[in-house]
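HUMAN: Can I see a protein plus its fold?

ASSISTANT:
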Amino acid sequence: MIFPVILSLALVGLFAPPAFAQFQQGGVDYPGEWYAGEGLKQGDFFSYAMCHVDYKECTEFEMDIWIKGDKQVGTEEKWLAEVVVYDGKKLVRGEMELGKLAPEPTGGSAELAVYRSAFKTSIVWLSAFATGHEGGGGEGPKAFTSTSWGKIGNIGGEQVMPTAVESVTVPAGTYESVLVTWKTGGATSKVWVVDGFPFPVKADTKTHVSEGIPPPEYKFRLLKYDENVDNPFEGIESSDVIQAALGCETVFEKSETLKTPTKNFDYSLHVFWGPENPKQGCEMQWLIKFISKFDETEFLNQVQFDLLVVDDNLTPLRSIAQEEGRQFLYSPSGQALIDMTVQEDPGTARYAIWIYGLAPEGIVPSTASDFAIVEIPILAREESIPEPVPTTKIPDWIKNNAGWWADGQIDDNSFVQGIQFLIKEGIMKIST
């Protein structure tokens, strides 16, 4: 009786497709088809929590989108969407234009550029495969039963395909969805789409890496969806408008810079910040580059850190990580961009870049902490930037006279004549 069982198993192994081929074979038993933008209409309101690796290394922000109506752009009719982004304590309001056959943003407010890019390469990324075009040639809606929707552009060209029917719960509710997946760098990326719904409701995707733990490429989840909404952004103003009314700089470069080792010489930092003269109550931005102490061209990976305000005894007075609801800030690539509002009193503020160590998120670093102090003068908001004190050039012969007199090469009378000249020309003043 044992022989037939063994033979049966051998035959199953002989004729069954390999596991890799099974994974590459997609398609689910679910009726219908889908494309990005399906069913989108005027009055729709969407709210997403999202992040993208190209913006602050996947630091989460909220993006609210309201479909205002149609807009004619040349010969093409597009959707005009009003958008409000809540990025930490910063609020950005603007517009973006979405295509009707593929809802990729092609224009809009300059202030939204970085967020518009994140939206294009995350929430509507599947429009690269599934569109409203009906012309054939690989374009058009994609059936859930299809074995593949296309291939990604990364090395290996893995298939993008429906793989399961799942009930998915997000803050906006619970939806019956089709899970679309692809594999990149050994990790599986996932997007959940709902038949008849314009955009996916959830995503968890990974960046392509050749080794190590792949960091997220983008994530999002639907927070809220409503139909037939009147303008939900009435009275909302961008932070830049409010900042300008307070007398703050709203356009500035990170022109100030400092290159320094940490206290224990475990790390090297290259720090940039702006504006040049930060004011209390105004916005400030940092760019921190974490560099190997052995090679200044090598960025460190998986940096767990915080930006603190400390007193003279290194007692923390403020933590940017805590203000963002996080235990620590995290930089997978070794370059961190940080926006903050200056809360410190006028005077010299002591900012500490506190490095807990190098480790993946969720894993406690095994090394001791290290830090570097950056001292920055803070102005009061109503305080003007100090004007540079004009300096008067002292003639070279006066400088020479002083040197010669000190060396005993000229007499006192010649030196006094030089002093009298300075007084006469108003370069030197004598108080009475």
Residues 1-23 have pLDDT under 50 and may be disordered. The radius of gyration is 31 Å. Helices lie at 2-15, 19-24, 113-120, 239-245, 320-323, 396-406, 412-424. The chain has three domains: 21-226, 250-378, 391-432.
